[in-house]
Amino acid sequence: MKLPVSNGYRQSRIGGKLDLIQASGQLHRSNMSRFAAKNDLARERVPGEETRVEYVELFFDLVFVFAVTQISHTLLKHLTVSGAFQAAFLLMAVWWVWVYTSWVTNWLDPRRNAVRLMLFVLMLAGLILSTSIPEAFETRAPVFVGAYIFMQLSRTAFIVWAQRDFNARNFRNMSRVLAWFVLSSVFWIAGAFAEHETRFAIWIVALLIEYVSPAARFWTPWSGASSTADWDIDGGHMAERSALFIIIALGESVLVTGATIAEADLTFGAVAAFLAAFVTTLAMWWIYFNAGAEMGRHSIEAANDPGRLARIAYTYMPVLLVAGIIVTAVGDELALAHPTGHHAELATVLVLTGGPALYIFGNIMFKWTVSGAVPRSHVVGLLLLLLAGVFGHNFDPMPLSAITSVILLIVAYWEHRLKEARTIVQNA
User: Fold this and answer.
1) 8 A C-beta contact, residue 78 and residue 87
2) pLDDT at 162
3) Measuring CA to CA, how many Å separate 271 from each of 52, 242, 341?
4) Tell me, what's the pLDDT at 425?
5) Contact 347, 357 (CB under 8 A)
6) Are strands 17-22 and 9-14 parallel, antiparallel or unpaired?
7) Residue 65: how many CB atoms within 10 A of its CB?
8) Are 279 and 354 in contact (CB under 8 A)?
9) Are residues 326 and 393 in the same domain?
10) Can you tell me the distance from the alpha carbon of 209 to that of 214, in angstroms, rounded to the nearest whole number?
11) I want to staple 269 with a disulfide (CB 3.0 to 4.6 A). Which of 282, 340, 378, 393 is the partner?
12) How far is the C-alpha of 191 from the C-alpha of 149, rounded, in Å?
C-alpha cells in the first residue's frame, strides 16, 4: 500500500518495514550541503520593526577609523595634484570594502557565530590594508592588493555559501557579484607588479570595473543581470550604517584637530584656528544629521524598490561626504600649523575651501537623490565657498578657515529653520 507524500518525503514498505526516503529535491539539497551553509544565517526581520545595528558591526568599523586617518595623513604629506588623485583613489577603495560589508550584514545576522567570525577575519585583513595605505603605490603595493582582494572575494564567497540553499535570488545575485570581483582582481594583481605610473592606470581600471558593476546590475553572460528588487534590504539599517561611517570621518577630523592643537604653541592664531576647526566639524554634523539623515531613512523605508535607492544614495553618494570631511580635516591641520603671518598658499586655499565645498556638493547630491529636491541653502553655501576659494589667496589660513566655518554655519542654520517651519506646517 502506498502512503501519501508529506513534507517532501514519501514512505514505502520494504521488507515489512517503513523506510523514510527523501524526495528528489531534498536529496539534491543533501548532496549539495557540503558546499553550502547547513543553517540559515539570514537576519530575522519583523514587519514594522527596524533591524538594529549590532555591536560587532560597530567593532568592525574601528578598523576604518584607522584607514580614514591614514588617508588624511597621506594627503597631507603629498599635497599635490597626483597626491590628491591617489588619496581619492584610496578612499574609494576603502569605502568600497566597507559598503559591501554593510550590504552583507544587512542580509546576514552578525549575532551568528559564523558571521561574526567572517567579520573578525575581515577586520584583520582591513588592519593590514590600512597599514599599507601610506606606501600603497610604492613598496607595499602587493600587501595593499592582497588584503583588498582577499576582503572582497572572501566576504562575497561567504555570502554565496551562506545563501545557496536559503535565498535563491540573492545567491544568484551574489554569485554575479563574485564574478565581477574575480574580474577586477586580475587587474589589481597585475597593477601590483607593474611600474608606478602603469600601476595607477591598471588599478583605476580595476576600481572602475567594481564601481560600474552595480549600475550594470552585475550582468554576466551566463546568468544575465540582477534586478534591484532582488536586493531585499532593511532600509533603516542601511541608512544607519551609512550615517555611522560619516560619524567615523567626523571623528577622525576631531582627532586630527585635537592632536595638532596638543602639540602647537597656544598663540591667539592657533586657538582661533582650533575654534574655527571645531565649528566647521560641528556645522558639518548639523548639515547632514539635522535633516538629511532622517530624510534618507524615511525615503528608503517608504521606497517601493529600496534596493534601487540604496544602490544610489547609500552606495555611491556617501563617499563624496567622507571625501569632503577628509579634505577639510587636512585644511584644518594646515591652518592650525601656520595660522597667521603669511597668505595662504594655493594648496592650503584649495583644501580649506574645497573640502567644505565637496561636502556641501555631496549633501546636495544625496538629498536630491532621496527627495528629488535641491536645498537652496546648499546651493548658496556652495557658491559662497567657491567665491572664498577665488579670493582665498588674500587671507592668512586662520581667517580663511573662519570664513568657511561661518559659511557652513549659515547653511546649517538655514536648513534648521526650514526644518522647523516644515514641522510647524505638518503639526498645524
Assistant:
1) yes
2) 94
3) 40, 33, 15
4) 65
5) no
6) antiparallel
7) 17
8) no
9) yes
10) 10
11) 340
12) 12
Q: What is the DSSP string of 169-224?
A: HHHHHHHHHHHHHHHHHHHHHHHHTS-HHHHHHHHHHHHHHHHHHHHTTT-BTTTB
CB 397 within 8 Å of CB 335: yes
Tell me the three cell numbers of residue 407: 559659511
CA torsion, points 181, 141, 133, 117, in degrees to nearest 10? 50
CB 241 within 8 A of CB 54: no
> Which of 214, 230, 246 is at the close of a domain?
230
User: 121, 154 in Cβ contact below 8 A?
Assistant: yes
**137 and 124 share one domain:** yes
SS3 assignment, position 8? coil
The mean pLDDT value for 237-258 works out to 90
Cβ count near 25 (within 10 Å) = 9
Distances from the Cα of 166 to the Cαs of 33, 101, 108, 192, in angstroms? Answer: 11, 20, 12, 37
C-alpha cell at 426: 505638518
pLDDT at 19 exceeding the cut of 50:
no
Amino acid identity, position 316:
Y
Same domain membership, residue 309 and residue 224: no
Do residues 288 and 377 both lie within one domain?
A: yes
Give the pLDDT confidence of 292-338 residue by residue, as tens digits.
888 888 888 888 888 888 888 999 999 999 999 999 999 999 999 88
Identify whether the C-beta of residue 184 lies closer than 8 Å to the C-beta of residue 96. Answer: no
pLDDT at 60 over 60: yes
189 and 246 together in one domain: no
**∠ Cα 262 267 271 (to 5°):** 60
Do 294 and 185 share a structural domain?
A: no
Helix (H, G, I), strand (E, B), or coil: what is residue 343? Answer: coil
Residues linked to residue 11 through DSSP beta bridges, in sequence order: 20
356 close to 324: Cβ distance less than 8 angstroms: yes
Q: What is the pTM of this model?
A: 0.88
- Cα–Cα distance between 410 and 287 in angstroms, integer? 10
Task: Compute the distance between CA of residue 14 and CA of residue 3 in angstroms, rounded to an integer.
Answer: 12
Write out the H or E segment, with its range, that includes residue 19: strand 17-22
How far is residue 335's CA from residue 353's CA, in Å, rounded to a whole number?
A: 12
CA distance 329 to 351: 9
